[in-house]
Amino acid sequence: MSYPAALYLGDKGETTGRFHLADAAPDLLIGERTRVHYLATGANTGGHYGLYRWEMGAAPSGGGAHFHRTFSESFFILNGTVSLYDGEAWTDHSPGDFFHVPPGGIHAFRNSHGPATMLVLFAPGAPREGYFEELADIVGSGRQLSEEEWTDLYRRHDQYMV
């Protein structure tokens, strides 16, 4: 494998880095149980990747088994215990554990054992914040979706439930 084509063609470099501080308020609350920090979205990385800090509270939460067709998803556990599903079995993971799922790979996550925080990386940088924001709106409003509405939501966001 070789390096990709150059994305920056200047000679001296530029001061273009941006910080997201640890004590920043979350960008999104999903109900009372999940705080999401948009560390780097596909929009601000030129579509290369999206990186999110996912803070789950004490009540169990997480997504059901699914796969994506257009991007990979990776999880890095920062604190607590996160249960991860690899398409065959659920296993518990602790700080420092990493799980990479290529496109098409069945996966799911859950904080079955109390509060936990992880980094979630999408590559390339799909616009996942739109999906997260729709979920937050559904949870916040208490709205009950029909099976057809869930199917449409998932389809629009490249999420195929298993």
Question: Keyphrases for this structure?
Answer:
alpha+beta, Jelly Rolls, 11 strands, 162 residues
Q: How does this model look, in words?
A:
With 162 residues, this protein is of the alpha+beta class. It has one domain: Jelly Rolls, CATH 2.60.120. It contains two helices and eleven strands. It has helices at 128-141, 147-156, and strands spanning 28-30, 34-40, 50-56, 66-67, 72-79, 82-85, 90-93, 98-101, 108-110, 116-123, 160-161. The strands form three sheets. The protein has a six-stranded antiparallel β-sheet with strand order 1-2-3-10-5-8, covered by helices on one side. β1 (28-30) and β2 (34-40) form a beta hairpin. The longest helix has 14 residues, at 128-141. It is globular, with a radius of gyration of 17 Å.
Q: What is the C-level CATH assignment?
A: Mainly Beta
* Proportion of strand residues: 25-35%
Gap from first CA to last CA: 33 Å
Average residue pLDDT: 96
DSSP helix fraction = 10-25%
Can you name the CATH architecture?
A: Sandwich
Concise structural overview:
The protein is of the alpha+beta class and 162 residues long.
What layout of secondary structure does this protein have?
Blueprint: E1 28-30, E2 34-40, E3 50-56, E4 66-67, E5 72-79, E6 82-85, E7 90-93, E8 98-101, E9 108-110, E10 116-123, H1 128-141, H2 147-156, E11 160-161
Antiparallel strand pairs: 1-2, 2-3, 3-10, 4-11, 5-8, 5-10, 6-7, 6-9
